[in-house]
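FYI - complex with magnesium ion, inputs then prediction.
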Amino acid sequence: MGQGEFDIIARYFTRNAQRSEVQLSVGDDAAVVAPPAGKRLVVAMDTIVEGIHFPAGTAAEDIGYRVLAVNLSDMAAMGAEPAWMTLSLSAPLADEAWFAGFAQGLFELADRHRVDLIGGDTVKGPLVATVQIAGWVESDRWLTRSGAQPGDLLFVSGVPGEAAAGLAVVQQAIPLTPAAQHLQRRFLRPEPRVALGRALRAIATSAMDVSDGLLTDLDKLCAASGCGARVDIDALPLSRQALEIFPYDACVDYALAGGDDYEMIFTVAPARLADLAGILPGGVPCTQIGVLTGNSVECWRAGQPFIPGRRGYDHFAPHLSQAHPIQDGARS
Ligand code: ADP
Ligand code: MG
């Protein structure tokens, strides 16, 4: 983008590094980082695309926040301490106000988690943002999807389904009552569970963040662990605010198949259950919603097998408006 690109990088994406590990940051051909002794480097990358992961017209602040939030959620799922990121940003306009907003949302969350932006790329094109994030984990202690065993207890953090309900609020232009505002905020400003992930290293046998839908992501965790699960629908925490606005069945569907919550699912051996309450960070409710089994992932409700209408974003959602590009698109 020539001169404009240089100005944008200098004005919006160049800041003093907060971390001593970062020895050279934005401005050279590459960044230089000194990993802390005895730690392992944990690396993840996530891309968000307008019309697929967020609706066209989403505020720049919310897009900047979101591209980091989805990456922090991957660090959380590994039990890692996030440390630095690089940003690849493709934007259609060299619009100063837009870049200022994007940077504000991005750094608001970055500062909360002490994540330094150490480099990136800025180009003109369709609205697409990618963050590569890196963090540290103690050399013998990280979380994976693959350690669950039959008999382990299955937990979910927070209230799954609120973000999907919040997306419906946005896309159906539902009047912004306090309940609707709460849900909208849960979609626009997901809270990655970094502290929970750090705490779970001591206890969880497996963990994963929920981005595509609780059931579809549980399928992945179970496949990685070589086991199954039985989910108790009656134990599922449902959003009080969603229930104010949407029918009960829609709320169950949001909780089971809605993505974008960036809550965590994790498993704990029954013998460690008593230790769990003592390590959970404040303000992060976790609910047991089932148990790991030998084979497939099944749902039960009132003592009967329950077949959900969909498991995640791979499936069509009949009760949602059909004009949902971000629900119909392929996601990852
Ligand atoms: P090069 O031509 O060597 O690839 P660029 O001109 O693309 O370098 O970038 C100059 C510097 O600005 C590099 O340090 C790069 O990492 C950084 N940078 C570019 N875009 C961004 C961005 N969106 N966020 C953070 N750093 C960026
Ligand atoms: Mg260069």
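The first strand starts at residue 22 and ends at 24. The pocket of adenosine-5'-diphosphate (ligand 1) is lined by residues 9, 13, 26-29, 87, 89, 117, 119-122 (CB under 6 Å).
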